[in-house]
Design brief:
mainly alpha; 4-stranded mixed beta sheet; 12 helices; 63% helix
């Protein structure tokens, strides 16, 4: 089993981060057998499809190059023009075949491992110039696998070639009795068929090599348990750093919450353990929202800020506890508490009107808080006092 420099066994599969780093370095699964098979097979198919037309057009190019007037042969500039025209015709003739081969050469490697371009893979690695390192690669397990693949290809292609030779032997022996044109056409057919069959036989090698390359790539990228833990720690952050970040987030949230208290219409208290600040604007809000809440020390700070900014305090222990456990900050109060909150807000608004010379309102008294809001935060009992 593979080990790292510390002697730890690499038993864990590569993480997504490890795979991404390997891809950036150009380390992706590749199969030369798949690329070779695809190139040869597409070449054979292209020759079978376009071969007749290419041979016919090549004959025309040859005829054009040889059928030149005698006078032009003594003109050195004319000879250059004739050569240029012949080369242009030959290039146009070969263009479709070369285009097919170029596309195949690009897409075949991408079929396994996807597209990966890395400048790191193009860098010079001096360790590859070390003869000892090269000898280790030759006699390593990978070198043995490459030797086995080479022998397998030799045996496979040799066997298929021998079968083709036996199959076409009568036709090959009869070529001498055919006319030149028929013999050439017959030879071309035999060669194209043999090329196609030999190329198709490489599919067997590719089918075996592709899973091996995938397995070998995954094995080379395996990690030790310590490497996985270190990566997780570096990705998620150290516990003390995460704790500090959470503390800073809480501090920022508390400052933002305290800044909203002066905008509140009322702070409902327990009177000492809980404090919940509410704000309601009939023009823009469908229901009152909680702008701040807290217990113990935080509740004391909310009351202090509210008092300093003239926000009235209203003592209603059941409602304060119910609002604290049922509603998050910047959220509307639940529908079950609408009536109780509405009575408190109506009383506060009437107090404000009385300060301007209106009648003094009576306190709402007992507020209607449904029983379900007296379930604690774990849902198994009454909320604490």
């Amino acid at each position: 089993m593979a080990e790292n420099q510390d002697g730890q066994e690499k038993t864990e599969q590569a993480t997504p981060k490890r795979l991404e780093e390997a891809r950036k370095k150009g380390q992706v699964p590749r199969s030369r057998e798949l690329t070779t098979m695809a190139m040869l097979l597409m070449a054979a198919i292209s020759m079978a499809v376009m071969g007749d037309a290419m041979i016919e057009q090549m004959g025309e190019v040859l005829h054009t190059g040889l059928a030149v007037e005698r006078a032009r042969l003594f003109d050195r500039f004319a000879v250059i023009d004739i050569l240029g025209e012949a080369m242009m015709q030959a290039a146009l003739l070969m263009a479709p075949f070369l285009l097919v081969m170029m596309v195949t050469a690009v897409l075949a490697p991408v079929a396994l491992g996807g597209w990966a371009f890395s400048t790191q893979a193009m860098g010079v690695k001096l360790d590859k110039l070390n003869p000892l390192t090269g000898m280790k690669r030759i006699f390593a397990a990978r070198g043995l696998v490459e030797l086995v693949k080479a022998l397998a290809k030799f045996l496979l292609i040799g066997s298929v070639g021998a079968l083709l030779l036996v199959q076409f032997m009568p036709e090959l022996m009869g070529l001498g009795r055919e006319s030149v044109e028929n013999g050439l056409a017959h030879t071309g057919k035999i060669l194209s068929t043999s090329f196609l069959v030999l190329s198709a036989s490489l599919i067997v090698i590719a089918v075996i090599d592709v899973p091996f390359q995938l397995w070998d790539h995954a094995k080379n990228l395996k990690m030790t348990r310590q490497e996985v833990r270190d990566e997780h720690k570096n990705t998620e952050g150290k516990p003390e750093v995460k704790s500090r970040v959470r503390a800073m987030q809480r501090e920022i949230a508390q400052r933002r919450m305290m800044a909203e208290i002066p905008k509140a219409d009322v702070v409902i208290t327990n009177p000492t353990h809980y404090a919940v600040a509410l704000r309601y604007d009939p023009q823009t809000m469908a229901a009152p929202i909680v702008v701040a809440k807290g217990v113990e020390l935080m509740a004391s700070q909310i009351r202090t800020v509210a008092t300093a900014n003239g926000v009235p305090l209203y003592e209603a222990p059941p409602l304060a506890r119910a609002l604290y456990y049922s509603t998050e900050i910047d959220r509307e109060v639940p529908a079950g508490l609408y009536l109780a909150v509405a009575q408190v807000l109506a009383y506060i608004f009437q107090i404000r009107a009385a300060a301007k010379g209106g009648p003094v309102p009576a306190s709402p008294g007992d507020l209607p808080v449904p029983d379900e809001f007296f379930q604690g935060p774990d849902g198994n009992g009454a909320v604490p006092d």
